Structures
1.
Amino acid sequence: MSFIRFAIFVLLLAAAEVATADESAKAWNALRAGGHVALMRHADAPGGFGDPPGFRVEDCATQRNLSAKGRADAEKIGARLKREGIAFEKVLSSPWCRCVDTGKLMNLGTVETEATFGNVVVLRDQRETLTAGGRALIAKWTADGNLLVVTHGANISALTGVSPASGEIVVVKGGSDRAEPVGRLLLD
């Protein structure tokens, strides 16, 4: 009986890996086709969720910031996207320093801050408004090229239902306010 359980476990594990590989392939194909929005959680920034008491968005010294690993990962992710031939017509970021820094270190274009991608954990009283703004921005993206948005895991979860790892990218189709995931990329 234990052999059967082990065999089932191995099969389930293999199925999970295939699903992940399938999600990754779908994400790459979508980005190569263009017209998609890549929602990326900022790279590694230790310290839990949110920010320390008294933080200020305009002062990086008061926020959780990228670790050395996070900075290196952001550079590696940007390089990998370039090697794969993925280009972004526009790069947007949450105003939080860990997001802006992730975007800049990826070196994929000029990073513009967009308030609607501000941290919905910290700005919990604005969560619905920020999420609606994010959905509207995705719905307006009808360009042939791709849009990269560097934001927070909680924002991506609110938009897509996916809770991404640090540095993970969830790809959604532009031009739709449903923000339904097409695929996912974990590149670090």
2.
Amino acid sequence: MPKPSRSLSTGVAAAALLATMAMSVTSPAFAAQPANGRESVVTELDYNSTGWRYRQVPPATDVPLFYERGFDDSEWPTGQAGFGTAGGCSFNTPANVKTPWARNTDILVRHWLHLPRNAQQVRIEGTIDNDAQVYLNGHLVQSVRSGYCRTGAIDVVVPAEYLECCNLLAIRGHDYGGSTYLNVRVTYVKPPQV
């Protein structure tokens, strides 16, 4: 049996080494994923966010379809969350209350969200004192009867069929007196790149 050429085995070894090195290099898309290759949670709209359109109205005032995408809120002021009064529950501090919300009124708030097509488990969570109806793209996704300033009273995962690329989050908060507070955030799960 003939003896293999030394240059052939050196060439094969070099090719194997290069192939191994090439396979160990991470592509940029994969590198952006968590080290464990799991899905990651992305905050789309955080607490104390800006750009909210809002309006305060007497309790039970009918504002037809304010939660619909086509509703014209161009005359409404723009504010920053959280909405509330100074004093009352532990959230009612200057660090947390950015826009005043008068006692014994309802507040209507609207904010647009842009979500990627692969967004999963879109979650709306936050605090309301006292009650709230939470809408996404005109769908009532949660009705909250907190009664007081309870952390996490707003907490809902939006059904996937309600989601679009450009989404409208609308909330009607109701106060019974004492103090007021409303602040929410929206997160979603970004699946790992394959």
